[in-house]
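Students often ask what a 'structure token' actually looks like in practice. Rather than answer in the abstract, let us consider 4-deoxy-L-threo-5-hexosulose-uronate ketol-isomerase, a protein of 280 residues. Its sequence is given first.
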Amino acid sequence: MNVIFENRFATAPLDVKHYDTEKLRQNFLIDNLMQADQLVLCYTHYERLIVGSAVPVKAPVALQTVDALKAEFFLQRRELGVINVGGTGYVEVDGNQYELANKEALYVGMGCRNVSFHSLNAQEPAKFYLNSTPAHHAYPVQHVRMNDCKKLEMGALATSNERIIYQLMIKEVVQTCQLQMGLTVLSQGSVWNTMPAHQHDRRMEAYFYFDLTPGQAVCHFMGEPKETRHLWLGNEQAVVSPPWSIHSGVGTGSYAFIWGMAGENLDYHDMDKFGPDQLR
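Now compare that with the structural description of the same chain:
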């Protein structure tokens, strides 16, 4: 098994004003996730969040450390969030197995040494989406099912943004150091995942888009509220959103997305909103 690792440095909003399409994609788009029998890791310098994936098909995929972490094992100074977007699989953590159905999550705390990812059926492999952040305390492993999380019903069909937000890893559900994760599923006929758009200077965010039908795409909006940019994303691609950037998207068809956050504030509702008439 190979580890595909990439290191992404932070960017300043003044610089991003001058980026063309290709440079925007190089800095913010993650388009190599969900590769069979590979551990894919993208280390960002925004809160040092790692975005990754593991798809075990022929064999289990182990969570391996990389030289850039300067750590004896991956979770020596980190915590990990896992959400399965494929067939049923399980995560083995220090000899204990946690079976994850589609859209279920697992929190793995700092200090866990041996973590590996497995599929129950190679014909319908599990697809594990990963977020990892630095940690200061060892919190226990916790399996989060859809019935365990908090649900928020947001938006309306009239504004094309009716959706359910499943808060899988927020402070009211799971104890973490700084990592928060969840997923949003849009109602049939709705296309906007977050409107009004928002930003939060106290933390960064990453979006992972999935369950797009072939040939469909999502246009993800980023940048400062009065200096916006956009990226076109396909199925099972992710985008990194700096603290100074808004994050909102609209799809050409039905889709879902996973949001992951890291930073100093664990208050989910700590955000600065910008209505459509305020964006430029």
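One point worth highlighting: The two ends are 45 Å apart (CA to CA). Ask yourself how you might have guessed this from the sequence alone, and why that guess would often be unreliable.
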